Amino acid sequence: MKNQSIILEQAQKYDSFYLYDESIILQYTNQLKECFPNVEFLYSLKTNPYPQVVKTVFSQGFGADAASLEEVRISHRNGLPKDKIYYSAPGKSMDDITEALEYSVIIADSLGEIYKIQDIAQKQDIIVPIGVRINPNFTFYAQEGIPAKFGIDEEIFFNQMKELKSLPNIKIVGIHVHSQSQELNADILKTYYTNMFQLAQTVQEKLEAPLEFINLGSGLGIPYAPEDAPLDVIQLGKFTANLLQQYQSFFPKTRIFIETGRYAVGKSGIYVTKVMDKKISRGVTYIILKNTLNGFIRPSLIPFVKGYSSQENPLSNEPLFTGKNAFELIPITNETKNETVILVGNLCTGSDIIAKDITLPTLHVGDVLAITNAGSYAAVLSPMQFSSQIPPAQLFLTVSGSIISM
Ligand SMILES: Cc1ncc(COP(=O)(O)O)c(C=O)c1O
């Protein structure tokens, strides 16, 4: 396994930790830039706001997809200008909007929010350029819309267009659609992007003003399970370049954004946990690991979902559940003998299980186990306060080989 000696060295100091590898973040962010030369990328901070991770992604020219005021602040503190920070989330408060106006472009998530922004802008006697999140009449899989808590239904938006255009203190300059995450099939994303450009053209025609940006949202998936075929970003990039060419006369100066969290950083992280105890109970061998459910919840949700689903492959429900083989469990040991065990965490609850009936090289107290795909929706989703355990450390391995811990 990559970085094995570094993992073992850090495991002397920490019983559980995340290790984010800068070189892998650079590899994935550069790949996107190469494949989509005319697209600007926004980093979805929600996936991993660890300071060195954010800095590394921003250093590659990415802007920010901020889902809260705090993510706007983080992006601003990292030096991003206003036109590289896009604040899109449902349920923003008046205070959120007032502060965020200064540092970011706000994407209104509802008609109510457009009027909130109008009110604030009127009081300040300014005209605010905004984006609008649209709930379109298509999904990844069908040419029809669905109800959603995100955005304004396309038909409602068009029906209200006349009134929205008459609001004196806002100017709609962009659109944002995010349909769903973690798609590995390039053909589905091609159809989605095609639908997006058609939608953008209609919006522009109805606005009777050029769109300054079209935000295509995310969707870029990464292979989690060994059987997953990676998304063909080369092919998707070529297709997107052609689409841009086709729409060149409609959008000569429009900026095109793709948001991504997991594609940029998902593969860069591993989670490392140590065997704290081992016992046999009525013939079952329990391996007790440090901070699993509470340190990195997603692998622990797999036995949970499998226990409640009659399906062989339970449907994903991002970002909590991706698939039954989404995380590889890799014991770092020279043991050659195998053993069938149950892997559990150290919380005082019987539901703290990471894998049942799993055959692995024999583990002993003090051994370490690495878990893959821990760069995204990992530390942030995990209930680290549960039972006041010392939380896992978060470490960052730089390209020059040094470790940064915060
Ligand atoms: C609006 C929006 N954009 C982007 C993302 C990032 O998705 P991913 O990490 O799969 O790229 C999400 C994820 O929930 C989202 O809700």
What can be said about this structure in brief?
This protein is α/β, with parallel strands linked by helices and 406 residues long. 32% of the residues lie in helices and 25% in strands.
In terms of topology, how is this protein built?
Elements: H1 4-11, E1 16-21, H2 22-35, E2 40-44, H3 51-59, E3 63-66, H4 69-77, E4 85-88, H5 94-103, E5 105-108, H6 111-124, E6 128-135, E7 152-153, H7 154-159, H8 161-166, E8 170-176, H9 186-207, E9 213-215, H10 233-246, E10 255-260, H11 262-265, E11 269-281, E12 284-289, H12 297-308, E13 329-332, E14 338-345, E15 353-361, E16 368-371, E17 393-397, E18 403-405
Parallel strand pairs: 1-17, 2-3, 2-10, 3-4, 4-5, 5-6, 6-7, 6-8, 8-9, 9-10, 12-14
Antiparallel strand pairs: 1-11, 11-12, 11-16, 13-16, 14-15, 17-18
Helix pairs in contact: 4-5, 9-10
Bound molecules: pyridoxal-5'-phosphate.
Second rung of CATH, namely the architecture of the largest domain: Alpha-Beta Barrel
Estimate the mean pLDDT confidence. 97
Poorly predicted residue ranges:
none
The CATH class assignment of the largest domain is: Alpha Beta
- Radius of gyration over C-alpha positions, nearest whole angstrom: 23 Å
Helix percent band: 25-40%
Our count of helices gives 12
- Estimate the global geometry from the Cα principal axes: elongated
Give a list of the ligands: pyridoxal-5'-phosphate
Structural classification:
alpha/beta
Count structural domains: 2
Number of strands: 18
Compressed to H and E, one letter per element, the order equals HEHEHEHEHEHEEHHEHEHEHEEHEEEEEE
Main sheet specs: 9 strands, mixed
CATH topology value of the largest domain: TIM Barrel
For this structure, what is the CATH homologous superfamily of the largest domain? Alanine racemase
Distance between the termini: 25 Å
β-strand percent reads 15-25%
